[in-house]
Structure of Heat shock protein DnaJ domain-containing protein:
Amino acid sequence: MTDADALKVAIDLFHLPSQVRAMRARPLPKGTRLLLRIASGDTDAMRQAQTLSDRSATAIREAAIFFVEQILLERGADEYRTLGLDNTAPANELRAHMALLIKWLHPDLNNDGHRSTMARQVIRAWQKVNSPDKLRRRPTTSDQIPTNAKQCRIETGKRFTERSIQPVARRTRKSLRILRFIAAAARSKFVRWKT
């Protein structure tokens, strides 16, 4: 019974939190989906967990949430571990785990800032797993446009004008200010000429 294994690991970890670091180094136990269902509030999963263990519903839910937060959603976890599976898992299982995590972490259901950060982590993991080719095209921080002309010359060996490296929004605002200045100057000349 794989669900019983995951539940036992979660309950043991909840009662002995000093083992979190060691558990992060181990592979995930089979049956993490049950823990995700419990964390997301699934009553059928809770009943199943109560039959598998002699614990109260509150203790089971707290253990499941603790396991998910400490093992799956730790900062250094890769995208597969964040979703509660390994890299051999099929896409439909990854999607099901992502949906359970988002159901539990959704900002509309929780006003907790820490949980909304975890929700963003889950979404990033899902995007990375779901479309890895899209991420290969995204520029890294070293590939981004430099902030000034001197950096451009150093990084690329070419000389760029200040205008070529300004963001489009800044150029647009500058153009609007110039147009407003010209319009104001024309109005003042027109008013002086008319009087």
In short: The chain has a mean pLDDT of 78. The first helix runs from residue 2 to 15. Residues 10 and 67 are 5 Å apart (CA to CA). The chain has two domains: 2-137, 149-194.
